[in-house]
Specification:
Elements: H1 24-46, H2 56-64, E1 68-74, E2 77-82, E3 93-97, H3 104-110, H4 115-120, E4 122-125, H5 130-160, E5 175-177, H6 195-209, H7 211-216, E6 224-228, H8 235-246, E7 250-254, H9 265-279, E8 283-288, H10 291-294, H11 306-321, E9 328-334, E10 352-355, H12 361-372, H13 383-388, H14 395-411, H15 419-431, H16 442-461, E11 468-472, E12 482-485, H17 496-517, H18 525-540, E13 560-561, E14 564-565, H19 573-600, H20 602-615, E15 617-619, H21 620-629
Parallel strand pairs: 1-4, 6-9, 6-10, 7-8, 8-9
Antiparallel strand pairs: 1-2, 2-3, 5-7, 11-12, 11-15, 13-14
Helix pairs in contact: 1-5, 6-8, 9-11, 12-14, 14-15, 16-17, 16-20, 17-18, 17-19, 18-19
Length: 643
């Protein structure tokens, strides 16, 4: 059974429409109808149906009998005037047609008319006027040709028409942007900031542009790239920019398109989409909001949504089913990568991750500049100031800020947007319904700056802690700020002192908040969780506690089912108590060490925090300059592998 899906026109984000295309049969039928009508009209107009019509042989007979006085030849048409029966009577007129291409006299002779009889009549040849004649001659050929051209043109228009809409793939809601579409083409230049993400995607561009180079080398090109980041950070935009850079077709489908569909339709749409994209490869398939279909399967009440699972399965099947030489790259975007089904993230699927971050101050300025391009700005506008006041804004927020500013200026009948328009709009964007991100207050920024400075200084001072790569107070993931360090286990075989320094570093944020504000926010709660987990591992897995010694005890609480202990490791209550007290000893020691570092290097700590407040992000070189200033040795940075 084939389900008929109502295909209602739907405006997408780019404002392009998916037209309500009539079915092929209807189109063909109407074209034929028009054609038939035209030929009927043509026929009636050009073919005389007069009562006085006679045949050629009748004409010949009349001529032979000497009844004809005059014949007027108009092309093939003959106007015959008979000799009046009596003097003064009105002459009778007859019409006939001669054979095409032969002279009338010759025809008549062939009919047995004698030369004398022929000479007795007056034959006039009336050459039809040029245009009408040629029209008459050519119409029978031209009309069908024109009809045919019209039909072809009509179908071409249907296919090409608006550029971003369904092509031949039936009910699939996917839209495609072809590289020939200059208007919609965007490149990396249109995306401000996100330098690291762009670098990562450069590789995809290179592959799509020049696949042979890679295939000849036997290189395996990643099939799937997952873009994660908060809403409005430019995931969709960047995916389109990859297609724009590589000049390949961009197939766009949103996960939420699948949600309201009938069972089985989602899967068939995915199949159609891949088929179509393969035909036009090299190409990019972009599945936006993939979390709508790609949530972990089998969770939720009733085992989840059947349709979603089938759609997800189909995506997996398709991704497994093409080889890298098919020159297809599947990109997906989500702001909830934590809920994604692990099957999606396996090698050969979305194994590349690109993380987009909220823009920092210089990037915010660049984004503002991009969106100010087509807007008349007054001379007093200082985008730097606007950038300073918009910490925590996403690219989409900044775009909407510029837009609100323009609206405000127009409402006030100004010719140009003033700085005040922009500043007034700030508030509107913050409280407005479209607000997607969180604008950090001055106080929040300060807390975050000191918190991160706490982590950073402890990491830099303690000898076994990991070196600091970057410190920022721009929210990242679910954390308010971020101090990037190398993950422990990738660097070397961790020793007890490495773990201890790591715990102290993790507690650095907590200690800093406590010291500066005398109060603790919920910010460090994740830090505490991580530190506690590390301490627990030290005690129960790595034998790093003096009290318990080098034995492995499962740190999890024993389970009791039907009154029986089913846990393999039989631990006494006393042992559990000892574990807890050892953990808390390690944490306390970590706290003390962190406090001491911040005490001893208070000036450096304050300077890091205050600089962060100014510039929001400290890259490694600038950070190291502060360390040097206070005589803190700079650690060798091992080759970074960013998480
Ligand atoms: P996401 O898909 O991550 O939610 P979008 O790609 O839809 O975000 O971005 C929404 C809009 O915000 C874009 O159309 C663009 O105008 C603006 N925008 C976001 N990030 C940037 C950026 N880095 N540079 C320029 N404009 C941006
Ligand atoms: Mg998006
Ligand atoms: Zn922290």
């Amino acid at each position: 059974m084939k389900l008929d899906i109502p295909n209602k026109p739907k405006n997408n984000k780019d404002g392009s429409k998916k037209p309500n295309t009539p079915s092929l049969m209807t189109q063909l039928f109407s074209a034929l109808l028009v054609f038939a009508l035209v030929s009927i009209l043509f026929d009636t107009y050009f073919t005389p149906h007069e009562d006085n019509q006679i045949t050629l042989s009748e004409t010949a007979t009349l001529v032979a009998e000497g009844q004809v006085s005059n014949i007027l030849v108009k092309g093939e048409k003959l106007d015959i005037t008979l000799i009046p029966a009596s003097e003064g009577a009105v002459p009778v007129e007859k019409v006939s047609k001669k054979e095409a291409g032969t002279a009338l006299s010759e025809t008549l002779v062939n009919y047995g008319v004698t030369t004398e009889a022929l000479q007795a009549i007056n034959i006039e040849i009336d050459e039809p006027s040029g245009f009408a004649y040629w029209l008459g001659q050519l119409a029978p050929f031209l009309l069908p040709l024109i009809g045919l051209i019209f039909i072809i043109w009509f179908f071409m228009k249907q296919v090409k028409g608006t550029n971003m809409k369904a092509m031949a793939f039936g009910d699939s809601k996917a839209r495609v942007i072809l590289p020939s579409n200059k208007e919609k083409r965007i490149t990396f230049k249109d995306v401000a900031g996100n330098r690291e993400a762009k670098q990562e995607l450069e590789e995809m561009v290179e592959f799509l542009k020049n696949p042979k180079k890679f295939i000849d080398m036997g290189a395996k090109i990643p099939k799937g790239v997952l873009m994660t980041g908060r809403p409005g950070t430019g995931k969709t935009m960047l995916a389109r920019a990859v297609a724009g850079e590589a000049r390949v077709p961009f197939f766009y489908l949103s996960g939420s398109d699948f949600v309201e569909m009938f069972v089985g339709v989602g899967a068939s749409r995915v199949r159609d989409l891949f088929k179509m994209a393969k035909k036009m490869s090299p190409a990019i398939i972009f599945i936006d909001e993939i979390d709508a279909v790609g949530r972990s399967r089998g969770v939720g009440i009733g085992g989840g949504n059947d349709e979603r699972e089938q759609t997800l399965n189909q995506i997996l099947v398709e991704m497994d089913g093409f080889e890298s030489n098919e020159k297809l790259i599947v990109m997906a975007a989500t702001n909830r990568s934590d809920v994604l089904d692990p099957a999606l993230l396996r090698p050969g699927r979305f194994d590349r991750r690109v993380m987009l971050e909220l823009p920092d101050r210089p990037d915010r300025k660049k984004i503002l500049e991009i969106h100010a391009r087509k807007k008349p700005l007054d001379t007093d506008v200082d985008l730097q100031v606007v950038a300073e006041r918009t910490a925590g804004f996403s690219g989409a927020d900044l775009e909407s800020l510029m837009n609100e500013g323009a609206i405000l200026a127009a409402l006030n009948k100004r010719k140009k947007i003033t700085q005040q328009d922009l500043l007034d709009s700030l508030e509107k964007v913050m409280i407005g319904p479209k607000r997607q991100s969180h604008l950090a207050s001055e106080h929040e920024k300060k807390v975050t700056a000191y918190h991160e400075a706490g982590h950073a200084i402890v990491a830099s001072v303690l000898p076994n802690a990991d070196p600091v790569h970057k410190v920022t107070i721009i929210p990242r993931g679910r954390a308010g700020g971020f101090t990037m360090k190398l993950p422990l286990d990738e660097r070397r075989l961790p020793t007890r002192s490495v773990y201890e320094d790591d715990i102290a570093m993790g507690l650095g944020g907590y200690v800093a908040e406590e010291k500066i504000f005398g109060d603790i926010t919920t910010g460090p709660s994740n830090d505490l969780k991580v530190a506690t987990a590390t301490a627990r591992d030290m005690v129960t897995k790595f034998g790093m506690s003096d009290e318990i010694g080098p034995i492995v005890v499962d740190g999890k609480a024993a389970q009791t089912i039907f009154g029986e202990r089913v846990d393999g490791s039989h631990r006494s209550e006393k042992m559990l108590e000892t574990i807890d007290s050892e953990i808390s000893k390690i944490i306390k020691r970590g706290l003390e060490r962190a406090r001491k570092v911040i005490e001893d290097y208070n000036d450096a700590f304050i300077e890091i925090a205050e600089t962060l407040l100014q510039v929001e992000t400290l890259e490694q070189s600038d950070y190291n300059k502060i360390l040097e200033k206070y005589g803190i040795p700079i650690k060798e940075l091992p080759k970074m592998k960013e998480a």
